[in-house]
Specification:
Layout (H helix, E strand, L loop, with lengths): L3 E4 L5 H10 L3 E5 L10 H8 L7 E6 L4 H11 L3 E4 L5 H10 L4 E7 L9 H4 L5 E5 L19 H10 L4 E4 L7 H8 L3 E4 L4 E2 L2 E2 L1 H20 L1
Parallel strand pairs: 1-2, 1-8, 2-3, 3-4, 4-5, 5-6, 6-7, 7-8
Antiparallel strand pairs: 9-10
């Protein structure tokens, strides 16, 4: 199976087009977050409008209540919503009722093996999981974009246990993408800072990353 690639922290229509032309399967657009590096909703809507099918546009939202998440979706028009914190599973169920036609991805912040306990809580209500390295309970909550990897042995176990596709995020770059694919076997890889130079999406790093992923996939298929 081909490893999908989601390029996150897209900041402009130009960056979106750069990622799409490089072969990204999805682009990530960061709404308001406690840690910053976010886009206004109007800019997100402008970018989602240019993403052609089958490229998915992910809205990253830190909202916790289903009605607020739904309102964020309706302001920005993504194909997919990425819920970046561990919301009440009852709100996840309610969101599925409110937005049945929007793909829903639940982020799980891997701080230890207890991350696996969240699979049955969310799996009935979402379409995929995304494993990241945030610290949602920190004094200033971190919901992603940390540039830190987490324990991939836990991630690999999560992938094996999950009934849904699983994206892997956290500290990925062209240097470690192949190892991530071999060790974790995720449905997709998701990265932000590993593709940027001085805050801008770097076309050379992007091309290198896509090449590494394709070679790693080819190696697994021939093994």
């Amino acid at each position: 199976m081909r490893t999908r690639v989601k390029v996150c922290c897209i900041a402009s229509v130009e960056e979106a087009r750069l990622a799409i032309e490089a072969g990204a399967d999805a682009i990530g657009l960061v709404g308001a977050m406690p840690s910053g590096r976010t886009l206004p909703d109007a800019r997100i809507a402008e970018i989602t409008a240019v993403a052609p099918p089958p490229v998915a546009s992910f809205l990253l939202t830190s909202e916790r209540m289903a009605e607020a998440i739904s309102a964020h979706i309706r302001r920005t028009h993504p194909t997919t919503v990425q819920i970046v914190t561990h919301i009440d599973p009852a709100e996840s169920a309610r969101l599925a009722e409110l937005e049945p036609h929007v793909r829903r991805v639940q982020v799980i912040h891997v701080e230890g093996p207890e991350a696996l306990d969240l699979i049955p809580a969310y799996a009935p209500h979402v379409h995929a999981f995304l494993l990241d390295s945030g610290r949602p309970n920190a004094a200033t909550p971190e919901f992603g974009g940390t540039g830190r990897p987490h324990d991939w042995t836990v991630s690999a176990e999560f992938v094996r246990a999950s009934p849904l596709p699983v994206f892997l995020a956290g500290g990925l770059s062209p240097a470690n993408a192949a190892d991530a694919i071999r060790q974790v076997r995720p449905f997709g890889l998701d990265l932000c800072s590993g593709l940027r130079t001085q805050g801008r999406l770097d076309p050379d790093k992007l091309a290198d990353f896509m090449s590494v992923v394709r070679r790693a996939d080819a190696g697994l298929m021939s093994a």
